[in-house]
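Our consortium's second objective concerns turning raw sequence data into structural hypotheses that experimental partners can test. To show how far this objective has progressed, the report includes one record in full. It was chosen at random from the queue rather than selected for favorable results. The single chain below, 357 residues long, was entered without modification.
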Amino acid sequence: MTVRAPAGAFLLVHLLEGVDFVRVLGIETSCDDTGVAVYDDERGLLAHKLASQVETHQPYGGVVPELAARDHIRLLMPLVGAVLDEAGGRYADAVAYTAGPGLAGALLVGVALGRSLAFGWEVPAAGIHHMEGHLLAPMLEEDKPDFPFLALLVSGGHSQLVDVHGVGRYQLLGTTRDDAVGEAFDKTAKLLGLGYPGGPAIAAAAQHGTPERYRFPRPMTDRPGLDFSFSGLKTYARNTVAGIELDERTIADVAWAFQDAAIDTLVIKCTRALEKTRRQRLVIAGGVGANEELRKRLATLATSRGFGLYYPRPAFCTDNGAMIAYAGWVRLAGGQRDGPGFSVRPRWPLTELLPID
């Protein structure tokens, strides 16, 4: 039996009348976290839940794509039911899902379910760019940045500096030429035997490290430009520990040196980008944005230079359904509608998105 939701048609009527009323179900399955949320334009975020796959992938020191897709299949539908119950309804007025970039198999799970729910409920649907979700995540907080602003997007798959003029109006200023900073954290943590995910593990070990025992390079800061490169930093860590005993003290000291170099590199590049664009607002988003040392150093920079600094809360730095629900609301209210078919884009440049008012 098809479950029909009159609210879906109601949404289209209201949008045509210029009234923004929409409750959006957001689904995020781009990698190894299963995220679901409901966002309402009048009441804000109504419910959000996240199922982590850390224990599944921890023995491998990184994400195994096939296992990630299987876990999404197992976790997603119960999570959708729980979020809808918490939000106080059996359906939503629209559905948004991450269509890319990410792991193809993982993306297909979320897109297939999201599109099926939209078809069954007879409501609009929108495929969302994962990094646009991260970029707009600070809008879920009370202290929201106004456009335009500079954004640093840092995660396991991305290290980007973006000049943001508005929704869909993005100019890529710099990106990584090899490893993303989050990937470098993960691989260095595995090298040191600290487990997965690497970012929190490195940060925890670095708290007990001896400053300056080791000095790591700041890659690509000795030349002009805003691009990143972190593969050499990872290699430097491997060469540093080659042939030495990795006792607890050495692990902590290497973790401190690696984190110090990685964070310093990000701060240097942000400083250059702020000077180039003359922006007065800086947004930090993505999983690495939860790093306390990064936040502390950028807060010092913001105080000294007088610009505004904005983050999503730590829970919304990592992959989550709330950012997809919110970005979906923005896109749907701006007129985006996906057809009955669906596809995923494992690689999807942020600059290809269409602008909306």
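The partners drew two points from this record. The chain has two domains: 6-136+317-352, 145-311. The longest helix spans residues 248-277. Both points have been shared with the crystallography group to help prioritize constructs.
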